[in-house]
Amino acid sequence: MAYLEVENLRVAFGQKEVLKGVSLAVEKGELVTLLGPSGCGKSTLLRTIAGLEHPNSGKLLLDGQEIQDRAVKERQIGMVFQSYALFPNMTTYENIAFGLRVKKIAKKEIEEKVQQMLALVELTECQHQLVTSLSGGQQQRVALARALIIEPKLLLLDEPLSALDARIRKQLQIKLRQIQQELGMTMIFVTHDQEEAMRISDRVHVLSAGELAQVSTPYELYTQPHNQFVAEFIGDYNRIDGLELNVPLNTKGNMSYFVRPEVIKFVPMPNSVALAVTYQTKQVLGNTVRYHLRTKKHQLIYVDVLNDGKFIQLANHVTLYIQPTDIIAVET
């Protein structure tokens, strides 16, 4: 039995069914993400696990115990929100200590645990400052420490980094993953950002319109999408008409064909498939140069090449080369 099990969970608001029989399992010590576009049901799923929403049907089991009918405070689950939800009139120390004080833990034990948490999130020097004087990244670390200090069985994070700028966001992704691994904490992290999910997760659960579209490791998700939605949502896959590829393909049913930008080459390879295109423009993306091209059927194709400072000089008409094993066929 998995540490957390969600069984056939259904949640509706009025006539609108938001979760349509979702089932998933999370192992102890895992960090998994719920990934999907706005409105797919990922935050509703998180809030239902926390007890903030009540399911119409289905089961929730945490550490072998059914919790779907338990009150929020009885579930032993911590939660971190995008808005931080800190007490503005309290210091960093007081915010982190709040949960322990509510439980009437001894003052000496509170002091020890708060200092441990301050060190863990690297905020010891800010402990006597009002949280309103802290930066967004620091406030989110306070919120994380406040959730962790009560030692929850499970920590839920609802887009906790989405309001931060890109640089701070990446720093906190690394810090969060370090803390999770150091504590062995089981975490579920909601995000709409594909790169964020790939960067921090043990496994990614992709949701689409209230249903699970795929559950995989980040690598498997990127290299082996199970359907058209996942292929188009994850990364920058090129969708190519099967007839233009001029290669025997699986044509059973309605199929779409996808190729990753980094596997397409400008020079022939053994057994490669040729694709005639027209050059459009190029775009420098840090350590990568992205070439924009179009097929005869006007489909836009991206080709990513390592940026070595020497741009490839392309004529107007170009031939691309793709290995058949790099062509991913999915049902539409």
Describe this structure in words.
It is built from nine helices and 17 strands. It is of the alpha+beta class and 332 residues long. The chain has a six-stranded mixed beta sheet, with helices on both faces. Strands 2-1-4-5 form a four-stranded antiparallel beta sheet, covered by helices on one side. A four-stranded antiparallel beta sheet has the order 15-14-13-16, with no helix packed on it. A hairpin with a 2-residue loop joins strand 1 (4-13) and strand 2 (16-26). Helix 2 (92-102) crosses helix 3, helix 2 (92-102) runs parallel beside helix 4 and helix 3 crosses helix 4 (136-148). The model has no long low-confidence stretch (mean pLDDT 92).
In short:
GO terms for molecular function: ABC-type quaternary ammonium compound transporting activity; ATP binding; ATP hydrolysis activity. The chain has helices at about 40-50, 90-100, 105-120, 135-150, 165-185, 195-200, 220-225, 230-235, 240-245, and strands at about 5-15, 15-25, 30-35, 55-60, 65, 75-80, 155-160, 185-190, 205-210, 210-215, 240, 255-260, 275-285, 290-295, 300-305, 315-320, 330.
Question: Can you give keywords for this protein?
Answer:
9 helices, four-stranded antiparallel beta sheet, 332 residues, single chain, six-stranded mixed beta sheet, alpha+beta
